[in-house]
Write the structure tokens for this entry.
Amino acid sequence: MSLESDLTLPVVLFKHQGHYFALEAAYVRSQGSVLAPEDPHSIVAFSALLNQAAYEFSVTEHYLELVGPSGSWWLGLEQSADLVELAIADISALPVSLQARRQFPALQALAWYQGQLVSLLDPKALQQLQVEQR
Amino acid sequence: MSESQLDQLLAQQQNKQQTIVDVDEPTIKLVVFSLGEYHFAFPGAAVKEVLSGDERVFFVPGMPTSVEGVINLRGDIESVIGLHALLQIPSPDYKNAIQTTAILLAHNQQMRSGLRVDRLLDVVDVTESQIQLPPESLPEHLQPYVTGLLEFTGLAVSVLDIDAVFAAWQKGQG
């Protein structure tokens, strides 16, 4: 039997403008470079979703292929992402004080990883933002 | 002939006795602090802990500017928010004043959060009679939050209602 401190959640971790974000690995199908995308027009920059601005300028050199209720879609990133294991004990629900005021609906939880704060994202909410963005 | 030391001592004791308050009168603990040029207090029951102002605060993306971020408090994540916007007080430049600030870990039944204050002044016990009703001249924007007024070392201190402050925060004010 494992203690909670031994349990981990596999996530895909990426950095955006100096801050760490992560998506549960089960929702990420692949990672690639935008130099050879299958469909370059279908990539939605993460910054556009975070800032909810259709024409948000951002350098997107990498993408994640995500799977969701509406099928696959491509999330553009500044840097490549890493598959890491987050200790369950280091993951916390978003405090009530922040849930009430979040402006980024995909922000679901917070976690500590190697002394840094990681914003855990809800893939379904992120896909909904992507649909609304189009 | 001048007073002896004993006379002075006895006179001091007499003065002290005269200033002793009625111990049977209910007292309330207040955490007194400043925000800008204004002075406020929360009832002690609303403040779980006072943290150093130099706690490392981690920025959380996608939040309003009044959210400073979160801290790692013994493994728990606690938000840190500023009350300046809610109370309509100009925000200071904390980069130059972080040493004097403090974080009050405040709570009510609905939520809990660290509150950044510019300076912690004191934690005091006062009698309920020392807290006066808020004056009619109190600025309109403070009226929903101020339950009383206290004179503390010559300063006018507004006593805040944590329930009203947090309710307004959750409704998107500040």
